[in-house]
TrEMBL record:
InterPro entries: Gal-3-0_sulfotransfrase, P-loop_NTPase. This is Galactosylceramide sulfotransferase. One of its GO terms (biological process) is glycolipid biosynthetic process. The keyword Lipid metabolism does not apply. GO terms for molecular function: galactosylceramide sulfotransferase activity.
Length: 476
């Protein structure tokens, strides 16, 4: 009897001891979970010091990897992204994304997003009144090629510079700092409306309202300012012309570092002639007299948000195109592309932390622009359903298209099948030719079409060949 009683007592003791161990382990895991959540929230707090970009890339890769059946921690990520990914696996993604992008905070961008959402255009068929504000070194030439194909095959009316094709700044409307006016664009026929814009021009609210129909969809693209600087130096700097020659030749050690210590010594006196002085903000119409006025910049960003339906991000180019596709009701065939104006790395900038800080101070408007619309971009994305599935599918199509069109002797067509997001299509050899056209070639073709419409009797101000002549050598 005593033995039985002892056994019962031993069982009870073991039960309580086991329960205690479970409670301790659970508490430890809970505390560790809370600690990891705190670490993650601190790690991904809105700070634009590259942290948001790193996390967003990790989220995008994780969501995309679900489609591929690949565990994120097995991907080839850097150490920081792997740590973020591992922490994120144990936390509800929706809650985290809400915390990351401050969706519960009533900050300026939240209010801006609410205002814009109330006026968002809804389409049931492809929009044909679309104006793209082309910015510098932001993948805007690739978007321009998408716009050109869309409008050319639908015989739409483009806003084009009233210039000769071989004229200096032929792809710019007006002179530096000028916006659209009826004096600097090719006239339209009386029965037509201006449908599309994709050439460089400075934004002006009144001028755009006077030029385009009321239902015009207005969008642009921007880029993280430091990355834009690097791209700008590699694109313009290799020519050693203008003020870039002055910058790059003034030191053998690190010319861009010297420039960033005192940029005003090298910059053109007129900011409209600069490509390194808050260029994106100036493209978007910010008065040059206000490019370092914090309160004015803030109010101007709010104003831009009420006028632009979308501000895309170069770093998330395919995501941007899918968002644009959804907003405009365009198709996958409309959105496919082959990248334009990509240049190899000519200059290794070797910028220090002080250099980057100086760049932020000098380009205060562009940093404010990017930080504001970065958050707004992701808020729009997070409202979309099956967004990353569609991005993944689009990238697979792009891969097929680029491989197919990269064959110089391509004589066959490529079939792309239907999907839940867009009808299928046939990519012909002629489509490949248009996809590979460079900026000047396509501008030339469209420019001549617009000129022939504006001056049907041949009394145009430009002596030129026909569109057929220009296209003939491409299709031989």
């Amino acid at each position: 009897m005593k033995t039985s009683t002892m056994q019962v007592r031993l069982i009870i003791c073991c039960f309580f001891l086991g329960s205690l161990i479970v409670i301790i382990q659970y508490t430890s895991r809970t505390n560790n979970f809370d600690y990891r959540r705190d670490v993650l929230e601190r790690r991904i707090s809105y700070d634009m010091g590259q942290q948001m970009v790193e996390y967003s890339e990790a989220v995008e890769k994780q969501l995309r990897s679900q489609k591929e059946g690949i565990h994120l921690t097995n991907l080839n990520l850097d150490a920081k992204s792997k740590r973020i990914a591992k922490l994120n696996e144990s936390i509800n993604k929706t809650q985290i994304k809400e915390r990351i992008f401050n969706l519960e905070r009533h900050d300026v961008t939240h209010d801006m997003h609410t205002k814009q959402a109330a006026t968002k255009k809804v389409c049931s068929s492809p929009m044909t009144h679309v104006a793209f504000l082309k910015t510098h070194k932001t993948a805007s030439s690739t978007i321009m090629s998408i716009m050109q194909r869309f409008g050319y095959f639908r015989n739409l009316t483009f806003v084009m510079p009233l210039k000769k094709i071989d004229q200096y700044r032929f792809n710019y409307i007006g002179e530096p700092g000028e916006t659209i006016s009826y004096e600097n664009i090719i006239p339209k026929r009386e029965e037509d409306e201006y449908d599309l814009l994709c050439n460089h021009v400075v934004y002006n609210e009144d001028a755009f309202q006077n030029t385009f129909p009321n239902d015009t969809f207005l969008f642009t693209i921007i880029r993280e300012p430091l990355k834009q600087l690097i791209s700008t130096v590699n694109y313009y700097g290799y020519t050693q012309q203008g003020y870039f020659a002055k910058i790059l030749n003034q030191s053998l050690m690190n010319p861009m570092s010297d420039y960033l210590k005192s940029p005003w010594k090298f910059e053109p006196s007129n900011p409209h002639y600069s490509v390194t002085n808050n260029k994106m903000s100036i493209d978007l119409g910010l008065p040059v007299s206000q490019i370092r006025n914090g309160s004015f910049i803030k109010s101007y960003m709010e104003r831009l948000n009420t006028k632009f339906e979308l501000v895309l991000l170069q770093e998330y180019f395919d995501e941007s195109l899918i968002l644009l596709k959804r907003f405009t009701c365009w198709s996958f065939k409309d959105m496919i592309y082959m990248s334009k104006n990509i240049w190899p790395l000519h200059q290794n900038l070797n910028l220090s932390a002080d250099d980057i800080d100086n760049h932020r101070k000098w380009n205060v408007a562009d940093y404010a622009l990017y930080e504001t619309f970065y958050k707004l971009f992701w808020r729009k994305v997070l409202k979309e359903k099956e967004f990353f599935d569609e991005v993944y599918h689009f990238r697979r199509i792009l891969q097929k298209v680029n491989i197919h069109c990269s064959n110089d002797k391509q004589s066959k067509s490529l079939s792309i099948f239907d999907s839940k997001w867009s009808p299928g299509f046939i990519l012909t050899p002629d489509d490949c030719i248009f996809l590979k056209m460079n900026e000047k070639q396509f501008i030339t073709v469209i420019h001549k079409r617009m000129i022939s419409r504006a001056y049907p009797n041949g009394n145009n101000p430009f002596e030129q060949t026909t569109i057929e002549d220009d296209l003939a050598h491409l299709f031989q």
